[in-house]
Amino acid sequence: MLTNLYIENIAVIEKTNIDFTRGLNVLTGETGAGKSIVIDSINAVLGHRSSRGLIRSGADAAFVSATFENVSELVQKKLSTMGFSAEDGTLILSRELNTAGKNTCRINSRPATVAALRDIGEYLVNIHGQNDNLELMNPALHIVYIDALAGIGERLSDYRGLYRELKAVEEELSSAEMDEAQRLSRIDLLTFQIAELEDAGVTVGEYEALNAEKTALRNREKIAKELMRARLALDGDDEVDGVLRMLDDAADSALNAAKFLPSLESASDRLSSALYELQDISRELESAMDDIDADPGRLEEIEERLDLLYRLMRKYGDSEEEMLTTLDNSREELKKLTDYAFNREQLALRRDELYTKAYNSAKEISAIRLKIAEGFRKDVESEMAFLEMPNVRLEVSFEEVPLNTRGIDKLEFLISTNPGEEPKPVSKIASGGELSRMMLAIKTVLSKADFVETLIFDEIDTGISGSAAGRVGKKLKQLSADCQVLCVTHQAQIAAFADNHLFISKSVHDDRTFTKVDMLDENGRIRELARIVGGEEITESGMNHARELLRSANL
């Protein structure tokens, strides 16, 4: 459960530390005091979208941390899969937002991402706000409630895998069923491209090698001149001895001297090795000269080949590798097009097979939903009767629709609020107060299948007052027996049921607004309930009424 929330520099809250307890925690205060900011802060530390606008004016950054204690085994397993741990069952989440838009997030002091906060947050807290009532006005979301209660997440995941594969095959089949003239035209083009690339005999590295050879041939005279000079220096001529002849004489002389002075044997050997190396170099230079002079038409041949490769590159890729990839792809596409009839038949068979599997899976899911929906209907009607709507009749309308991501069901809640009236869509029947109570009834039923340990209700009492508000308070109290409940309310009848009553107030100092949160004792609760009932002027009769509310709530 959530035991502590620390907030710094968020909107009108400069710095506050809020302790929560088990049971029902209620937050009350004047309009604009900062109750919604507490919920915004919880949303932020749970990884929900938060803007720089949350940062208190004049501050460079805002910071929120939330401490959870005795976290469930499910939460600990989830943390483990994410690479985190919660020693002694304690989990601390924190998030800092700065004016540059950067986030610094931590899970138990270890760096984390906003997404990681959001992932683990889904296992810790469910927040239900006024906007949730609007979900009841949207029939497309009704199926989500039934699926949550049915616990069919794994079945839905398996079905969606089949559905995605089915759509992929249908798309492939649709693209395969092109116009016959287009198919034949494409076959002609691919056949030409394949023949052109195959005839060219493209090999990787050829273009670069030919360019290097072309450069050498274009500078043939310069190269030949330099090779002649090098060979003359090595081999000499009739008039001048070359390096090889002189080195040969030196090697012979050193060898003769070594006969009388053995220490010269190493020098003799090195001279011989140098001689062999230079002789080898001389032969290499001679071969290079022969290659340059061997084929006077080679340069023209190279330029023609480079021109061909350049034209092919412009059409099929910027390199030999890309051209060869184009060739492989063209061969594969040509095979598919020439095997068109066979491929189309196989795709159609696969489509029919996948459709049957997906439809059967969707039918099984639909049967589970139908069974769950009946229990859901009875439970919600019972909860709404408790919330002073005894004549409500709820129906869950099912309609089979074509396969989609959720199966074959179109599902909608229909209600009748008065005896004798036929159930109609929620959007056409329910008032604001009825929507609030219906949503609370649904959330109460869903909580039986929920795995989170903290539920937050943010001003769900819209349109509710009097004895109905008292019933809502009692229902929240009942919920808090099984999980921790936080509730922001303007209703004294609801606040009276609190196990922990937190009062949010604001003040102005030096033209700046400051908000603080106080845990109320019994006298403080009486005064706050009297304020809610009677306004800013607290009278003795208001105090007596507050005492009576507390007494009734604790009966």
Mean pLDDT: 87
Q: Spatial order of the strands in the main sheet? A: 2-1-4-5-6-7
Roughly what fraction of the amino acids lie in strands? 15-25%
Total of DSSP H or I helical runs spanning 4+ residues: 20
Span of the ends, CA to CA: 26 Å
CATH class placement of the domain at 1-136 and 451-520: Alpha Beta
Give an overview of the whole structure.
The chain is of the alpha/beta class and 555 residues long. Among the domains are: 1-136 and 451-520, 3-Layer(aba) Sandwich (Rossmann fold); 184-338, no CATH class. It has 20 helices and 15 strands. The protein has helices at 35-45, 73-81, 114-121, 132-135, 142-150, 153-176, 180-200, 206-218, 220-235, 243-258, 265-294, 298-316, 320-338, 340-386, 426-429, 432-447, 466-479, 492-495, 522-534, 540-553, and strands spanning 2-10, 13-19, 24-29, 61-68, 91-98, 103-107, 110-112, 125-128, 393-404, 407-416, 424-425, 454-458, 484-488, 500-509, 512-519. The strands form three sheets. The protein has a six-stranded antiparallel beta sheet. Strand 1 and strand 2 (13-19) form a beta hairpin. Helix 5 packs across helix 14, helix 9 packs antiparallel against helix 11 and helix 19 (522-534) crosses helix 20 (540-553). 29% of the residues are buried. The model has no long low-confidence stretch (mean pLDDT 87).
